[in-house]
Amino acid sequence: MLTLLLSMSLALTPASSSQAPANDAGASAQEGDAPIAWPLGGIEAPSQPSGSSSSTYTRTQRFVPRPAIGGLSATRTPVSSLVGVRGMEYSDVMGVGLVTGLAGSGDSAAAAKQLLQNLLLTRTINIDLQALSSKNIAVVLVEAELSSGTKPGRAIDVRVSTIGDASSLLGGTLVMTELTDMMGRDVYVTASGPVTVGGFSAGGEGASATKNHVTVGTLPGGGKVQREVPTSIVSEHGFIYLDIKSAHDTLGNIVNIAAAVNELYPGLAETTADGKSVRIAVPDDLPPSAHAHFAASVLRQEVVAESLARVIINERSGVIVMGGDVRLQPGVIAYGNLTVTIAETPETSQPGPVSTGNTEVLERTTLTIEEENNALVLAPGAATLQEVVDVLNVLGTTPRDMITILQAMSQAGTLLAEIKRM
After folding, report:
1. Considering the entire predicted model, what is its pTM?
2. Distance, CA of 144 to CA of 410 (rounded, Å)
3. Of all helices (H) and strands (E), which one includes residue 270?
4. Which part of the chain has CATH 3.30.1360?
5. Taking Cα atoms as reference points, which of 89, 73, 74, 1 lies closest to residue 40?
6. Region 76-86+232-304: CATH code
């Protein structure tokens, strides 16, 4: 093979002006002649990959908190911040609608075509399902919160979210949609109008950019109330019920609210047997037109809100919130992070074109393990929230490490608080 390549290259070599005569073809080239150009030069071996992958774990510098402004004294708050008036709840209404006008980011499923065909049939337009395109339409779930007593004709906010595989609702318009109760019998709200996404999504074949969640949108004021949810703040037996909110659900708050109402209207308020509500008797001589004034005066009363011994943690975002009555028992804490970093960098071995080797993928793995070697930390008891903060700051951990430590302290009994996970 090599002899054949050399023969072909010699035959294709162009003649040179300083070349020897034909009968001296075998003579060597004279000094100063131009180098011979070989059309079929040597074949280079393919270049081997030189890139590598990496995995890095970095802990940022610890944030040093500033001293808080103000004390931890008891806080007085209006009754309306702690309770809700029974009969003034929100009702959820929902429906399934169609968003049109999308720029090729709609559903690809046949459900969108079927819904569009049904919409056209309501306008006596019959088009075959195969002739419809769903690139610019999307099937969405339409939801709204309807406050009890909202009169027909009022505008409310509506939210929409995709059901199928539509990639964006940007620029779309919601077709008139009926929102009903859970049973789907009574229509309470109708919604239509342009969808506000609050972001964008753009991309090409090799890259894309997205801001916010573009498959969920809102229609500010896009819903119109068609039916009122009847309600009354006074029960048929002549009572107003104040139900405690879950974030303030303590017996102390219920007792304080009843005492504050009795200071304003002696003998009219009492706590219910379950300890979740305050029942207020409406005076018999009070006309119905004054019931709202009576309830408003009660809700404006200020009480001392009881601080809860509760710790709220969110492991997804690393958020920790503590109530004012959180306390600590003395204990000893030891913690240490174990960080494992694995980087896979496979390489491809490509042999030369005239060799008899095979292409192979060579596995390359870089493994790094780092373990912190921390000493035991004595956590003294803490009788105030400020002392709790000071003790936990001594540990110097990240919020995610602190979540694990708080959970372990709760199980050990050194954290005197209830832990709730979001």
Report:
1. 0.64
2. 40
3. strand 269-271
4. 76-86+232-304
5. 1
6. 3.30.1360
